[in-house]
Amino acid sequence: MKVEHFLEKNEVREVTIFKQLVLNGGKLSYVEMLDYLAVAKASLDKDLESISFRIQSLADQVSVSYDGQYIFLTMSDEFSLQQIYQLYLSQSVKVKLISFLFEHQEFSIIQLAQQLMISDSSLFRKIKELNSYLKEFGIKIRNGKLHGEELNIRYFYFQFYSYIEEKEALVVSHSDKQITQMVQAMESFLHVTIEPENRQRLNVWMLISKNRVHFKEKKYTHLREQMQPYLEDPLHQKIRLMVLRYFSRYSIEVDEEEAMLHFAFLLAFPILNEHDFHEYTLERDRRAPIATLDTYVVETIIIHYKFRRLPYMVERDMYYHLSHIHTKLYFFQGDIEVYDYEEMLSKEKQFTGRNLVSFAHTLLSISTDKFGINKAEENSLVKMELLKYISLLAIISFKMTTIIQIGIDLKMESIYTETLNQLLILNMRHINGIHVEACQPNKVYDLILTNEQPTQKDRYGDAQVYVLSEILSSFDMENIQRIVQQLNV
Fold first, then answer.
1. Strands 70-75 and 27-29
2. How many Å apart are CA 124 and CA 120, to the nearest integer?
């Protein structure tokens, strides 16, 4: 599910105009914008007029102007594209519909149509559109209620209040001592310290849980099935005891599954810090599905990169991130694509290389096959977890990369040498794990860049030599990057 799915078609075009202006340095020709949006001139004119009206209250922070040839964007230093999205989402009928459903848990068509000030037919259309996107979460709005597995419903609301509706609105309107006490009780029972950013996530989850705990018609079929290997898990047992004791203080009857919901959430999201999670891994059953997959994927990575062994802290860090990825795949369905998948994938390919992305796909196939997830279906969760695999592999590559020493030894007049040395160094800054400098006497290098074939073979010791065909050419740059990757293996 994409953030844009909460907006109307014309609103999507308008935020796309903002996005294109940001990507093009705040200036884009009218013709180029027409081509990109693939709309008629009248539509673009109408969109620009709508944008001007929508942002008029923010005139001191953002403006869009058109001089007859170019469209311009200016924003204050403390204003960003994210706030543009929030402006549009705050006025979205679909967002208001979901918020109303969360607050009241059910509605009548007449009641909600009046609340949103739209016709019954428009409301039916909005619900139908939302249901087409909610399908990947395994949930559906029907007969004025949200139907589906309770874990999926809470997870969707968590995503919604984390990325779509401003979570501050949820916290301010619902926060009370009961939530604060429950978070403190969790820290005490689990003997952990939850850091401020993680505490924010936990507060949102607890507020959603408090709202849902009184709902009578909760469904746990899939959760019970997935929890079978974890019923005796030490973390689950601690959470179970905490939940039963805590709610009994308020004379609230809760299902046994309430603890299961919190268990899945705690392991899928970075609530526990790395140290506390590591303490848990020492106790957990290593034969349980998530732990088994964590170990298998770690071993696959070690074999792939031909590492003899990983440094202890690198391996620990890897287990921490992999367990979040695998827990989400094991327990949850769907995701809200906060970051544009294609753009993120393109950027990560540029940054990490095609080989790493290909290996991330291999790891994802291992995980989805293990958990029986159908990759053929439109599944934002699978797509976003792929990006996390790529990021994790990049982190490992950076941490395990030895610094390749590169010396530049150009044979030409010194007035050219100094300038070209600096240009070569600047053009190679994007290559990770290297140190480049003008060749120093008696210093050992892994790679020498020169423009003439050396006459003495032992002049550079054991260093590999690359003779530049045309200084600063893309041909040479690609070959140098290939050699660096080979030296790092």
1. antiparallel
2. 6
Mean of all residue pLDDT scores within the chain: 89
Q: Left (φ > 0), alpha (ψ -120 to 50) or beta: where does 141 sit? A: beta
Residue 226 in 3-state DSSP?
helix
* Among candidate residues 176, 185, 237, 245, the one with its CA nearest the CA of residue 211: 176
Q: Do the beta carbons of residue 480 and residue 428 sit within 8 Å? A: yes
CATH of domain 3-90: 1.10.10
pLDDT confidence of 300, banded at 50, 70, 90?
A: very high
**Which CATH number does 404-488 carry?**
3.40.50.2300
Integer CA distances (angstroms), 344 to 1, 119, 212, 351, 352, in order? 16, 39, 34, 10, 12
Please enumerate in sequence order all residues whose Cβ is within 8 A of that of 165, keeping only pairs 6 or more positions apart, or say none. 89, 95, 98, 99
Reduce the DSSP state of residue 375 to 3 states and report it: coil
Chain segment 78-94, per-residue pLDDT in tens: 888 989 999 999 999 99
3 state DSSP class of 471: coil
Q: Which class is 92-148 in CATH?
A: mainly alpha
Which amino acid is present at 363? L
- Give me the residues paired with residue 408 across strands: 438, 449
Cα–Cα distance, 30 to 341 (Å, whole number)? 27
**Tokens describing residue 392:** 């994790």
How far is the C-alpha of 248 from the C-alpha of 135, rounded, in Å?
35
For residues 206 and 174, is the Cβ–Cβ distance under 8 A?
no
CA distance 193 to 181: 14
Continuous segment of H or E residues that includes residue 137:
none
Burial class (CB in 10 A: 0-12, 13-18, 19+), 400: middle
460: confidence class by pLDDT, cuts 50, 70, 90: confident
